[in-house]
Write a structure and sequence with these properties.
With 496 residues, this protein is mostly helical. 74% of the residues lie in helices and 1% in strands. The chain has a domain of 213 residues.
């Protein structure tokens, strides 16, 4: 099903809602100076809820293409729409009582968040190289501004500059790869490109050029997913950015990056690389992804072991989790896709929960150092227990939801006979347990030598903590619901 521009608009309402909300927030920030601190978050959350409701209510009867082959229409894309909208909604709630953002105009922040959400949705559904590039640039440019949002903070400015430099190089490399791909095939649509390459395979297409295309494209996708060796920006950017922005970057853009990685290679190249006598037959791409996955998770976990800054530790932890998701990308089956979707969903709640605790502690203590969490169990038992649950979930210890994510990922690779790969993943989870449990040790076993004062938190933050704890505790019990949702969301439009 290939829909024209007018026919596609009925499936494009969530995106149109976000566009309208961006304009309304900007107007509100300019005109309603006395009420903008209330109006702007309400407008933003209302738009996100409306877009989420419309996305859930929209049923895709069949897969196809929107806007003459610019965007895909399938349950895979619908899943990421829901995921990204929920992520942005939670970040809005997390940021409301963040001391890092309270002293500056928040209207700009909300407008930027809506813009980056729009870009991520378009990116996750792009099947045209131009649309893919434009949506990725929309995500990147708005992210650069959000990272450097604390204008008077040197670390924030430095983080933004590093993010821009790394992003420019990786995106430029990817764009050059796209230009080579267009030169080889004469098309910008992924499925037309695939068909053209299959036809040219019998005529002796330039293998070296095609190899270069894939390598350069991986540079752009690897930057968004913070995969080794394109991860160098991640620790410094996460450390310098406002903590709500760090929490956002560690979840939403990363998920969108994996979505387009799946679309680009599974939809555009999978049938090429696997065909008998097809293209790139001399390259074992599964093995290449395995190597990247192993190095990514190992590097992230080993680097996190020595970190005393909790934000920086969670940055390296995010790199390691990207390695786990890449394990699912190795498996070119429905099982692998389902494992990716389940893992990203559970990672959303446990990672945002950990960052929310970091924000609450920073509001009170003005510190990110792990040793300053000493004695937290005595000062705030609720917060210490919540952080412990988030840490245990990130490790993947039952009965918390992180175990469910790792179970799906490890099960997917074992189903393909890659038992040794699952063992490497399990060993990395054991390494990760050390630095996660070190945080718990400081909170529960260590004593605070200084003045012990209780940690104060708003009722909103208390409610958010409970909201994020619920999926971490109950998803393992009601796992069948997420399993059915993920199974129904593996329908990936392949151009046929």
């Amino acid at each position: 099903m290939n829909l024209g521009n007018l026919e596609s608009l009925s499936f494009f309402c969530p995106e149109l809602i976000l566009v309208g909300a961006i304009l309304l927030v900007v107007i509100s920030d300019i005109s309603l100076k006395g009420l903008r601190n209330v109006a702007n978050p309400l407008l933003t959350m209302t738009a996100l809820v409306m877009a989420l409701y419309y996305t859930i209510q929209t049923e895709h009867g069949s897969a196809g293409q929107l806007f003459e082959g610019m965007l895909a229409l399938d349950t895979f894309g619908q899943y990421f729409k829901v995921f990204l909208l929920i992520s942005s909604l939670l970040i809005i709630l997390v940021s409301l009582h963040s001391s890092e953002l309270s002293s500056i105009h928040q209207g700009e922040f909300f407008a930027l968040l809506l813009a980056v959400t729009l870009g991520m949705i378009l990116m996750a559904n792009s099947i045209n190289l131009v649309m893919l590039y434009l949506s990725l640039e929309l995500v990147s440019l708005t992210s650069y501004v959000m990272v450097g949002y604390l204008r008077n903070d040197r670390l924030s400015n430095e983080a933004s500059m590093k993010y821009i430099l790394f992003g420019a190089v990786s995106t430029g490399s990817m764009l050059y790869g796209f230009s080579l791909l267009y030169g080889l095939t004469g098309s910008l649509n992924l499925f037309e490109i695939r068909e053209a390459l299959i036809i040219q395979g019998d005529l002796g297409v330039n293998q070296l050029t095609l190899l270069l295309v894939v390598v350069l494209s991986i540079a752009g996708f690897g930057f968004k997913t913070a995969s080794v060796p394109f991860h160098f920006w991640c620790p410094d950017v996460y450390t310098g950015a406002p903590t709500p922005v760090t929490a956002f970057l560690s979840v939403a853009p990363k998920a969108a990056g994996f979505a387009i990685l799946v679309r680009f290679f599974f939809g555009g190249f999978s049938q090429i690389t696997q065909a008998d006598g097809g293209l790139l037959t001399g390259v074992n791409w599964a093995l290449v992804l395995i190597i990247i996955s192993v190095i990514t998770m190992s590097w992230g976990n080993i680097a996190a072991l020595t970190q005393n800054n909790l934000k920086r530790m969670l940055a390296y932890s995010s790199i390691a989790h990207a390695g786990y998701v890449l394990m699912g990308c190795v498996v070119l089956t429905e099982t692998g896709l389902k494992a990716i979707l389940v893992y990203l969903f559970v990672y959303l709640f446990m990672n945002l929960g950990a960052f929310l605790v970091v924000i609450i502690v920073f509001n009170s203590e003005r510190t990110f150092q792990v040793q300053d969490y000493n004695g937290m169990f005595r000062r705030s038992p609720f917060l210490a227990i919540a952080m412990s649950i988030f840490m245990l979930s990130l490790i993947g210890i039952p009965p918390f939801s992180g175990f469910l994510g790792k179970l799906y990922i490890f099960g997917a690779v074992i189903d393909q006979g890659l038992f040794w790969f699952a063992v490497i993943g399990a060993l990395n989870a054991a390494v990760a347990a050390f630095y996660y449990m070190r945080v718990m040790k400081h909170m529960i076993l260590e004593s605070n030598d200084g003045e012990s004062k209780p940690l104060h938190m708003s009722y909103l933050n208390q409610a958010l903590i409970v909201l994020l704890l619920i999926p971490n505790v109950l998803l393992i019990v009601y796992w069948s619901h997420i399993d059915r949702w993920a199974t129904s969301s593996t329908e990936l439009f392949n151009g046929l």
